[in-house]
């Protein structure tokens, strides 16, 4: 497969502070890569470096097998959807969409025609004569998408495009975005801090932490084999439980061979069984009920905390004494010192 | 009766609901008073006095006598007034766009952070802060045809007191056209306020819109024409209206201090100077009042014309 986008040891700095540290990423042509990370991890900087809005201090950027590191933004053939959408407030929707074509000297009529077609694709064809000020958040988002689509760029860059939408609309646009990607088969880099969005949308996810790539993998890999405690706890809500491997909880079934060094054992809230007859004793601190699910916050011996997801109908009472149980198959092991995944 | 028992609380409620409204109205009136007193005392009353004087003959010594529309009829016939009117209109038509353009150019040049930008901004602003009379006297020196720095600069590289192109340098204060140009030149450097407003307006424009344009490979000209200019149009229009109104006033000090209305034939006699000389030097108060009224009407007309223009380009205002 040819490469849509390659970052090769890219570092970037804002003033004197390093924001990206030798980031290596490659996105295949037609792939949707989601860059996931907490705020301040450098996610947006990755996009800005690809777009050429931010210079690199080291490394190369290649788009469609072309080294664009020293090219200006307009020569990189990328489209970007900004978090704020960056629509031109004084232009109508159709003028906004056609802007990129018109400044590239496409004849006006042709530009308008293609703008109309792009608007059709994202479902905002009815808004062509309105101005951004007259649009709702979701409508602006569609216009911004149409503007990115109208030219056929090598890479689409989406900077948290869904973060300004309310929850229902976000879920809807998420699905539409995925469908759109499948339909046009474009190379996309989508930045978000929302792990659900990442898991739903991505072909692959790159988890970013403090300007370094923590793990790159399919949503399944990120979920089932997190490369570090950071990835393990960042993806999943509530976060994965982490306990010392020699602590109060001993998982059931056959244990893997454990080395000498100190390890941490991680397991997701849904891996915890509470109705075990034998297991680790714990007390229920509090219980949160969210519809069908309940999250029980448990105290173990020596002050360790564990969250368990249980069906709301069978949730324990606050203060109740329970016994919890986890299977080795559901457990993850990490080096206590580095936080990296432990391979037995 | 139960009704009488309920009445007082109901009244109290009504009073409670009304009183904050009445109190805030009192506050409003109190805060408006100083402004209203100033407006009445310094603008409305003098305007009415002017209106009254304009239909009289009055020389400060004898009591005013009724003149009807004589003063206005005389104005129409007065060649000096016609020259002053033309001078003022030409000045406004040339100087106002130039001032706004210069301020816009400087604002667009200096809105980014870079080495020396702070100093350059201060330099652009400084002439505006010089007291008007001092500013006038300074230009009197700058314009001096023999030892003034401007002509010395123009003569650089030339021989026999001519410019490098072999032409005579402008005789700033003695040649009518050069004198008019000189007054306009003087007015260009006092656009500091306009510059500051435009600088702030440019810096308030969203950065991502410009980044978007960079990604779309828009040229500098495209960015200016399609983004910066339309987004700044409301501020530019406002400044142009303000400058047009003010242009009738800021011709006064230069013409008074630097050229004294000359060189002949009345090359830099503007309406403001005409009114001043007619009133305070020739003591023809009625006649000066009539000219003032014409000046006022001219201001109103200028504002109306620009208002219409702005309305036509209203879409820029619905940003």
TrEMBL record, chain A:
Gene3D superfamilies found in the cross-reference section: 2.40.50.100, P-loop containing nucleotide triphosphate hydrolases
Domain ABC transporter: 5-235
Any one GO molecular-function label of the UniProt entry: ATP binding
Domain of life where this protein originates: Bacteria
Keywords: ATP-binding, Nucleotide-binding, Transport
Signal peptide from the UniProt entry: none
Keyword ATP-binding among record annotations: yes
Bilayer-crossing regions: none
InterPro entries per the UniProt record, alphabetical: AAA+_ATPase, ABC_transporter-like_ATP-bd, ABC_transporter-like_CS, ABC_transpr_MalK/UgpC-like, Mo/tungstate-bd_C_term_dom, P-loop_NTPase, Transp-assoc_OB_typ2
UniProt xrefs under PANTHER family: MALTODEXTRIN IMPORT ATP-BINDING PROTEIN MSMX (PTHR43875), OSMOPROTECTIVE COMPOUNDS UPTAKE ATP-BINDING PROTEIN GGTA (PTHR43875:SF1)
Name of the molecule in the record: ABC transporter ATP-binding protein
């Amino acid at each position: 497969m040819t490469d849509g986008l390659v970052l090769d040891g890219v570092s970037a700095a804002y003033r004197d502070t390093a924001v990206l540290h030798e980031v290596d990423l490659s996105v295949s042509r037609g792939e949707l890569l989601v860059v996931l990370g907490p705020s301040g991890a450098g996610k947006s900087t990755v996009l800005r470096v690809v777009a050429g809005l931010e210079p690199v201090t080291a490394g190369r950027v290649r788009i469609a097998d072309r080294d664009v590191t020293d090219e200006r933004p307009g020569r990189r053939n990328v489209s970007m959807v900004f978090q704020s959408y960056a629509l031109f407030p004084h232009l109508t929707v159709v003028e906004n969409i056609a802007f990129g074509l018109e400044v590239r000297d496409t004849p006006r009529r042709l530009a308008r025609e293609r703008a109309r077609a792009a608007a059709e694709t994202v479902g905002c064809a009815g808004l062509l004569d309105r101005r951004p000020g007259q649009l709702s958040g979701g409508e602006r988002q569609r216009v911004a998408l149409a503007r990115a689509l109208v030219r056929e760029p090598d890479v689409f860059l989406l900077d948290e495009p869904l973060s300004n939408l309310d929850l229902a609309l976000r879920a809807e646009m998420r699905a539409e975005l995925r469908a759109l990607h499948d339909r046009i088969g474009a190379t996309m880099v989508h930045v978000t801090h929302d792990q659900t969005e990442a898991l739903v949308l991505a072909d692959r996810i790159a988890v970013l932490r403090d300007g370094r790539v923590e793990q790159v993998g399919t949503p399944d890999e990120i979920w089932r084999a997190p490369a570090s405690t950071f990835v393990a706890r960042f993806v999943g809500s509530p976060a994965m439980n982490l306990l010392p491997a020699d602590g109060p909880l001993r998982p059931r079934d056959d244990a893997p061979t454990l080395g000498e060094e100190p390890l941490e054992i991680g397991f997701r809230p849904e891996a915890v069984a509470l109705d075990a007859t034998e297991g680790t004793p714990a007390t229920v601190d509090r219980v949160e009920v969210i519809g069908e699910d309940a999250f029980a916050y448990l105290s173990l011996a020596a002050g360790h905390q564990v969250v368990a997801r249980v069906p709301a109908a069978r949730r324990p009472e606050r203060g109740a004494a329970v016994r919890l149980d986890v299977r080795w198959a559901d457990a993850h092991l990490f080096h206590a010192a580095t936080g990296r995944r432990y391979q037995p | 009766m139960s009704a009488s028992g309920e009445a007082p609380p109901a009244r109290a409620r009504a009073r409670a609901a009304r009183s904050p409204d009445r109190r805030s109205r009192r506050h409003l009136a109190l805060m408006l008073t100083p402004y209203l007193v100033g407006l009445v005392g310094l603008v409305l009353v003098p305007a009415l006095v002017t209106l009254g004087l304009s239909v009289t003959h009055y020389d400060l010594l004898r009591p005013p006598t009724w003149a009807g529309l004589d003063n206005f009829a005389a104005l129409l016939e007065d060649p000096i007034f016609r020259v002053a009117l033309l001078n003022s209109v030409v000045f406004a038509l040339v100087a106002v766009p130039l001032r706004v353009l210069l301020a816009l150019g400087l604002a667009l040049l200096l809105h980014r952070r870079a080495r020396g930008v702070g100093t350059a901004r201060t330099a652009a602003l400084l002439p505006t802060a010089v007291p008007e009379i001092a500013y006038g006297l300074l230009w009197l020196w700058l314009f001096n045809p023999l030892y003034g720095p401007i002509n010395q600069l123009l003569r650089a590289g030339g021989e026999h007191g001519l410019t490098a192109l072999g032409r005579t340098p402008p005789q700033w204060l003695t040649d009518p056209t050069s004198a008019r140009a000189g007054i306009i030149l003087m007015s260009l450097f006092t656009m500091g306020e306009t510059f500051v407003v435009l600088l702030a307006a440019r810096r308030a424009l969203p950065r991502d819109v410009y980044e978007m344009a960079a990604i779309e490979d828009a040229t500098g000209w495209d960015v200016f024409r399609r983004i910066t200019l339309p987004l700044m149009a409301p501020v530019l229009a406002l400044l142009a209206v303000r400058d047009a109104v003010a242009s009738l006033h800021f011709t006064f000090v230069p013409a008074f201090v630097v050229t004294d209305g000359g060189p002949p034939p009345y090359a830099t006699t503007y309406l403001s100077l005409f009114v001043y000389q007619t009133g305070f030097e020739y003591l023809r108060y009625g006649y000066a009042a009539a000219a003032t009224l014409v000046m006022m009407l001219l201001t109103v007309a200028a504002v109306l014309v620009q208002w219409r223009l702005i309305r036509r380009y209203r879409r820029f205002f619905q940003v």
